[in-house]
Amino acid sequence: MKAPHIVRRKIVQHALSFVSAIILALVIGLAMLALDGFALKDVINSAFSSTFASSFRFANMVSRMIIIILVALAAAIPFKAGIWNIGGDGQLAVGGFLTALAGFYIIGLPPVFHVSLAILAGMFGGALWASISAYIRLKFNANEIVTTIMMNYLAVLLTGYLVNYPFRAPGSSNAETSLIRESAMLTRMLPLSNLSSGMYVVLAAFLIICFIDWKTSWGYEWRVLGANDEFARYGGVKDKRMRFLSMIIGGALAGLAGAILVLGVNHKYMLGMGGGVGFTGVLIALIAANSPILILIVSMIFAILQSGMIGLESKLGVATEYSSILQSVIILLVITRSQAWSSISNLLTRRSLHGKHD
Amino acid sequence: MTLAIETHQITKLYGDTVANDHIDFSVIEGHIHAVLGENGAGKTTLVKILFGEEMPTEGEIKIFGKTVTIHNPAEALDLSIGFIHQHFTLVNEFTIAQNFALGIEPCNNLFFCDYDTVNKKVKNILDMLEMPLKLDVPVGSFSVEERQIMEIGKALYRGAQILILDEPTSVLTPQKIEKLLDILRKLRQEGKTIIMITHKLEEAFSIADEISVLRKGVLVATLPHDRVNREQLIRMMVGEEPLITLKKEDHPFGDALVQVRNLCVNNYDNRIVKNVSFEIHRGEIFGLTGVGGNGQAELVEALIGMRPASEGDIRFDGKSVVHWDIQKRRLSGMAYVPENRIERGAAVSLSILDNLVMGHHYLPEFHQGLLLKYKNLQSFARDIIKDFEVVASSLEINAGSLSGGNLQKLIIGREFSLNTPFLIVAYPSQGIDIRTTKYVHSELIRRRDTGYAILLVSGDMDEIFNLSDRIGVMYSGELVAITKPEEINRFELGQYMVGSRRNC
Ligand SMILES: Nc1ncnc2c1ncn2[C@@H]1O[C@H](COP(=O)(O)OP(=O)(O)OP(=O)(O)O)[C@@H](O)[C@H]1O
Ligand SMILES: [Mg+2]
Asked: Are the Cβ atoms of B347 and A231 closer than 8 angstroms?
């Protein structure tokens, strides 16, 4: 059978529209800054200074990216299976907290085991937290959008209580746990930077998810469930079990993000350390239509944007809200692009047809 | 004699597929025009172009003599063209008025819409269609045929002078088809122009003024209904190839593979299947028929496991399976061609490959642990496409881009090739052309001859009489008759179906 032309053309069209949407968003963002009286040269310079200018900046940007990738996958896997996971933030918090406990209370293990155990604790915490919403949805049919968001608040309140009272670091005035043991810390790739050897763990997780998505019956059944769950059920797919599984895996990925923040960046659990990144993950999963490869690309773009905005803020005093505005513009453009693209191509074909008639 | 529609050299390409090939098609105002052709011949594509759902790659359209370009359905409506799709488009949760006026509500301001006037107009239309329906209940509570006629009502509400119907009869039972045809005749009297796509020649002959035949994207001919006969039409549709003739010989049945005992099925508090008992033997086709909505669908769902049985027992190969889930039942030897192919039989947004894999992916030859063997799956999928003559340019395109009949072939191919000893086949010839229908029927008989047990659910009398070894009739949730085709005639079967007679 011949190679599918239509398919290849579709992929190219998809990618093209995607890239042009993002470029257009950047142009709009720059135009807004220019209208606000900033010189374009300064803007580019200061954005560059906080992203690619030094290996230290670059490492911090990558560290931001790997966390975004994890939370985006945490949202995307359940989405694929037709169940919403808005609870990345809560899962990250619970995972991070358990990781911090495992990092502090377990003593005398060689580093490899200690780190692995602490990471597993984080993934377990995230999975557990996600499984609660999943269970309530699949057993009692309570809307998982609501429950996952509720579970975010619950996670903040619960870990907030725990790090304020029973597990507060002795003598600390902040809501945070004690520092984890040396043996549980991930090595920093660059002194003082946020990027740790946890990036290899993320790389492995990413590859495993790609593999599951493309090659296994799980990925297949999730895809079918998301596309038409009645068809999946008819075909014998155990819909509840598979959705539960997708939610647990999503939760584990968010928990892993928490673990890496604890073991590689902060070396303790601090209340609010995720900074609402879970929600960014949801948006990216939507933009990237749950495709792991697109998630990689969009996460990169978002990490560059967010890091770049830090430079704009510190150097030029640009309001941080610009970053959110720009991200929103990207989201709007990407989401509306297929419609826009088809009307543009309609226009083009119509013109060529008319050309023929003349 | 004016022409309502006239197309000039319409061509439509989908990638490399030529769906319409330089078509000159014209429809006389006030006439009923039937369009026939095999699956994938380009019928739906042609009418979609007229309705602005697709733009032609080339060619010109004249509506009532005026050259027009129709970019979208709204423009088609402005030109007074209404389209009744192959599938339903009503919003189930809305009332009739809300559906008819959807998007064109007469609103004074943002909040207050004048549904009284809408309702008055709706009532007039329903009266004309002889459908005295309740106006204050959601559309979802009406039957299939009522909704089908409502789709027509909606087009009329929007001022359609030209009505296009894509296979309107494929989901209807014979009695309801008659009713629909009567309505169409009435609309013709009122001066409407009607285009109807169908696979059933009798319908074309009984109602159409002109008949057009499409084949592989080309318009073979347009002829007045009295200047052509059945054989000529079939030849125009399928070419010179002779059709297979069915041969079904009596043979002894094996043991009872499927045994249903006192089965009851509830929908909330309503008992929809009442105390049904029957068995199907190896080597037997059991034809289940009845007027739509009398419990056949729910009975089938209980057999495959999509709906729980509230009482009674289902035995398969000697074992009670009532508590088994769908996967376990399928793996123990059941397959199922469902009655609604878009909602249940396929995921139209996924590729043909993904659609063919379903159910097969549990089998040992296609997976190793969690890993799916995509190479094997691909070659298997290609085999099905070939054996069942699914017209598709590749395995990667969306199932939704297949023509209606080709999607049906895909589903039948997928379920048949599971080679299970028990096959549930609901309305298999829905939307497939004459040649494919013959092929599917001969496959069913071949499987019966090799010892499979087959449950054939159908409302098509020919199908039921020609294929069944025994016939079961359902009425109001009960199995009111089990009989043999040679022991009854159509009139008696009809009496069973409307509940005026029973034998068990
Ligand atoms: N959106 C699409 N993308 C690609 N190919 C398409 C698309 N729609 C239709 N086709 C192809 O165009 C051809 C004609 O399809 P069409 O739906 O018009 O057939 P049809 O005559 O209505 O058949 P049926 O009787 O099965 O409904 C088929 O080969 C089909 O696969
Ligand atoms: Mg069609």
From this structure: yes
Q: Which domain holds residue B224?
A: 3-238
Region of residue A290 (left: phi > 0; alpha: psi -120 to 50; beta: else): left
| Tens-digit pLDDT profile for residues B225-241 | 999 998 899 889 887 77
Ligand 1: nearest atom to the Cα of B12:
12
Look up the pTM and report it. Answer: 0.87
Residue of chain B whose alpha carbon sits nearest to that of A237:
B327
Tell whether B243 lies on the interface with A, counting CB pairs under 8 A: no
In a domain, B243, yes or no: no
Q: Are residues B376 and B274 in the same domain?
A: no
Q: Of B419, B454, B470, which marks where a domain is finished?
A: B419
The CATH number of whichever domain residue B165 belongs to comes to: 3.40.50.300
Query: Do B216 and B83 reside in the same domain of the chain?
Result: yes
Ligand number, closest to the Cα atom of B214: 1
C-alpha distances (whole Å) from B462 to each of A4, B204, B467, B502 are 40, 17, 8, 21
Task: Give domain status of residue B338, yes or no.
Answer: no
Interface of A with B (CB under 8 A): 1-7, 9, 212, 215-218, 220, 223-224, 227-228, 230-238, 346, 349-350, 353, 356
Between A170-174, A184-188, A219-223, A351-355, the lowest mean confidence (pLDDT) is in: A351-355
Could you tell me if B314 and B436 lie in one domain? yes
Best residue for ligand 1 mutational test, from B10, B17, B47, B218 (most atoms within 8 Å of Cβ): B17
| 8 Å CB contact of A230 and B344 | yes
Whether residues B424 and B413 share a domain: the answer is: no
Which of B378, B394, B419 terminates a domain? The answer is B419
Distance from C-alpha of B423 to C-alpha of B268, rounded to nearest angstrom: 28
Q: Which of A215-224, B78-87, B142-151, B227-236 has the highest mean pLDDT?
A: A215-224
Instruction: Please tell me the predicted confidence (pLDDT) of residue A335.
Output: 78
Closest approach atom of ligand 1 to CA B214:
21
Q: What ipTM, to 2 d.p.?
A: 0.86
Q: Does B406 contact ligand 1 (Cβ within 6 A)?
A: yes
A227 and B347 within 8 Å at the Cβ level: the answer is: yes
Question: Count of A–B CB contacts within 8 Å?
Answer: 95
Q: What residue owns the CA closest to ligand 1's atom 16? A: B42
User: Is pLDDT above 50 for A54?
Assistant: yes
Any idea what DSSP says for residue A187?
A: P
- Residues counted in chain A: 358
B327 at A interface, C-beta within 8 A: yes
Please indicate, yes or no, whether residues B174 and B263 belong to a single structural domain of this protein. Answer: no
* Chain B residues close to A223, C-beta within 8 Å: 350, 354
Q: How many domains, chain B? A: 3
Q: Which of A197-211, A344-358, B71-85, B424-438 has the largest mean confidence?
A: A197-211
Has residue B244 been placed in a domain? no
What six digits make up the tokens of A236?
């014998």
Average pLDDT estimate for B9-30: 94
Q: What are residue B499's phi and psi, to 5 degrees?
A: 85, 15
Q: Name the closest ligand to CA B407.
A: 1
Of all helices (H) and strands (E), which one includes residue B444? helix B434-449
Residues B181 and B325 both lie in one domain: no
Q: Do A234 and B348 touch (CB under 8 A)?
A: no
Rounded to whole angstroms, the Cα distance separating B44 from A234 reads 28
Chain A contact for B68, CB < 8 A?
A: no
Return d(Cα A94, Cα A229) in angstroms, integer: 31
Residue A95: pLDDT band by 50, 70, 90 thresholds? very high
Same domain assignment for residues B79 and B185: yes
B38 band by pLDDT with thresholds 50, 70 and 90: very high
User: How many angstroms separate the CA atoms of A307 and A329, rounded?
Assistant: 17
pLDDT of residue B391: 87
- Domain residue extents for chain A: 1-38+327-358, 56-317
Mean pLDDT estimate for chain B: 92
- Pair (B424, B407) in one structural domain: no
The residue whose CA has the least distance to atom 19 of ligand 1 is B40
Kindly state the average pLDDT of the residues B368-391: 94
Q: What pLDDT was estimated at residue A351? A: 45
Q: Could you tell me if B147 and B90 are in contact, meaning their C-beta atoms sit under 8 angstroms apart?
A: yes
Residue in chain A lying closest to B394 (CA): A4
Residue B456 per-residue DSSP state: E
Which two tokens mark B123? 């009532």
Q: Which CATH number fits domain A56-317: 2.60.40, 3.90.1150, 1.10.3470, 2.60.220?
A: 1.10.3470
What is the helix (H) or strand (E) element at residue B481, kind and residue range?
strand B478-483
